[in-house]
Amino acid sequence: MAEWSGFRPCACIAVDAEAYGGKNDRGQSQTQHDLPRLLDGAARGADLDRAQWQIQRKGDEQLAVRLLDGTEPRLVDDYIRHLVAELREYNVQRVPEARMRLRAVVHQGLVELADNGFAGTAVVATARLLTARPLYDALAAHPGADLALLLSDDVFRSTVAGGHTTLSTEDFTRVTAQVKEYEATAWLWVPAPAVAPPEPGAAQWGKHAAPAPGEPAADRPQPAAVGGPLISNEYRGEHTNVTNIAGPVDARGAVFGFGSAGG
């Protein structure tokens, strides 16, 4: 773990899990066990050493501080992309209530390692950005997204706008972060979900609305495959339907019917 004295130029990386307070004891415990593992995995994927970061842990939240060393574009680009990939892999195995969705912030400025944490206005600004309304609104507006990222104006201009990442300035939306006495320009990015979430009322029918009662079976749209094998809910007595599924299946709440080939 890197140590330093006095105020030094640092990158500040903060994350916070959505809806943590609404989980029960076991759910909160699971989040606290899994969040560090996901963050460590993302750092390894980006070839960044989190063991050299100063980390302040707070339940469903982490604030990491590291000395500026020229790898900040990789922090904004590779680390965040790998974190999104870690979250997708984690969430695809879980029911919606157990998903982990993160608000994330990257800022930079002078930071001191104090006796009770971190000192410096850069740390305060990072905390304010993490609780800014645009981040909450972004996750609410994109229910299929696993992460919403907010870059401070300094970080955005020195990495993305400077052309030092694979990200484009068009990927970001300029917003105003206003929390308590803090107000600043920031840049919002919501990585696209791997699969777009189904429209309300159409979970079994992809982009189509569920068929109206009495609609002929032949006119009913086939359910869309979402991240897995195509499974048809349709039954016709004159046909034999065979579904091949590879791997474990969570069939809680499902109804299975069996019949002979002759109907």
For this entry, give a set of tags.
single chain; 263 residues; alpha+beta; Alpha-Beta Plaits; 2 domains; eight-stranded mixed sheet; 26% helix; globular; disordered C terminus
Plain-language structure description:
By secondary structure, the protein is of the alpha+beta class. The protein folds into two domains: 8-189, Nucleotide cyclase, GGDEF domain (Alpha-Beta Plaits, 2-Layer Sandwich), CATH 3.30.70; 198-257, no CATH class. The protein is 26% helix and 22% strand. It contains five helices and eight strands. The protein has helices at residues 25-45, 72-91, 121-130, 133-141, 153-160; strands spanning 8-17, 54-58, 61-67, 102-114, 117-119, 147-152, 173-179, 182-189. Strands 1, 2, 3, 4, 5, 6, 7 and 8 form an eight-stranded mixed β-sheet that branches. Strand 4 (102-114) and strand 5 (117-119) form a beta hairpin. Helix 1 crosses helix 2 (72-91). The longest helix has 21 residues, at 25-45. It starts with 7 loop residues before the first strand and ends in a 74-residue tail after the last strand. The model is unreliable at 196-242 and 258-263 (pLDDT under 50).
Would you kindly provide a brief summary of this structure?
Helix content is 26%, strand content 22%.
